[in-house]
Amino acid sequence: MTVISKKRLKEFWSIHPDAKRGLTDWYSHMKAGLFLSMAELKAVFGSADYMSDRDRYCFNISGNKYRLIARITWGVTVFVVEVLTHSDYDRKYVDKRKRK
Fold this sequence. Notes:
CATH topology: YaeB-like fold
CATH architecture: 2-Layer Sandwich
Number of domains: 1
Strand order of the largest sheet: 1-5-4-3-2
Low-confidence stretches: none
Structural class: alpha+beta
Distance between the termini: 36 Å
Number of helices: 4
Shape: globular
Mean pLDDT: 93
Strand content: 25-35%
Radius of gyration: 13 Å
């Protein structure tokens, strides 16, 4: 699949060097794979979750220390929306749901 964009991953690991291995592993698996469904994605990325309120997918990176948010066009492209620390993810996504 085409992954857009590795630049966003590199920018993140330049700030958080310990994320590099996890992000490069994720990138390699996504690039080599042809994911046509959530079931196929979960077979490789068991912790992947669908974010129904955003129509995006969340991946745990580096033992759940980081979170990668992506949009997927099944069988075609993966667009990296953002990479966050777990605490930044909680502030941005989890805390908002608790306030509703």
